[in-house]
Amino acid sequence: MIERYPPLSPEFYKQSTVDVAQALLGKLLLHRTAEGTAAGIIVETEAYLWDDPACHASKKMTPRNAPMFGHPGFSYVYFTYGMHYCMNVATAPEGIGEAVLIRALEPVEGLDLMSLRRRTTDPLLLCSGPGRLTQALAIGKDQNRVNLSSGNLQILDMPAKNLPIIRTTRIGIRLGKDLLLRFYLANSIYISRRLNF
DNA sequence: TGAGTGATTGACT
DNA sequence: GTCAATCACTCAT
Fold first, then answer.
1. Rounded to whole angstroms, how far apart are CA atoms A9 and A105?
2. pTM exceeds 0.70, yes or no
3. A153 three-state secondary structure
4. Which residue is nearest to nucleotide B10 (CA to C1')?
5. pLDDT truncated to tens, each residue of chain A (197 aa)?
6. Which positions of chain B lie under 7 Å from any protein Cβ?
7. What whole-number distance in Å separates Cα of residue A82 and Cα of residue A147?
8. Residues 151-180 of A with CB under 7 A from strand C
9. What percentage of chain A's residues is helix, strand, coil (to nearest 5)?
10. How distant is C1' of B4 from CA of A160, in Å?
């Protein structure tokens, strides 16, 4: 039933990075694998801009951050802290290194599969964090630099709901802490952290 | 609160 | 080529 929603068009990702970060809230992130399909509604994002000290791409292009400089609407998946993958969506025209980090989902489909991968049945712990959602959806380095408008990893459009959005400071970074580039759905219980001090 | 984990990177031979 | 510092996190305590 989820499959009837169309993927977001490549045009969607040509908005400014901050606009994409907000517009992605309420959309559906879906990953089809041999084991089955898992999907969730995006409830929390962060924007990373080219002149932002916390952005991987703020200095120069390297083999790791190259996807951020690539075509908008493609994924940028990277490995960090020795154990976690984080999933980003590249934005901005080619040559400009900007992206939106997906931080949390509300699980919608494939709950059993997610529970198996996450080794927990608590729906609040399935996708409420950038490392958690990649594990729940089995997103890894194979999903780096893929087109999110076609293929097995997609973001689907959902009917607009005009849900209230909170804008606040980002989490878990050292530099650029004061920038208001984190967005989440005010009413969602699935975000990684409600307040940020 | 802090231990665990490993790819990536930049500064060095 | 080597080496050490860094890192947008999670989980158990």
1. 20
2. yes
3. strand
4. A62
5. 676 799 999 999 999 999 999 999 999 999 999 999 999 999 999 999 999 999 999 888 898 999 999 999 999 999 999 899 999 999 999 999 999 999 999 999 999 999 999 999 999 999 999 999 999 999 999 999 999 999 999 999 998 778 999 999 999 898 888 899 999 999 999 998 765 44
6. 4-10
7. 26
8. 170-175
9. 20, 30, 50
10. 42
For residues A170 and A182, the answer to whether their CB atoms sit within 8 Å is yes
Q: Is A101 left (phi over 0), alpha (psi -120 to 50) or beta?
A: beta
Of A18, A122, A158, A144, the closest CA to residue A75 belongs to A144
Closest nucleotide to A101, Cα to C1' = C8
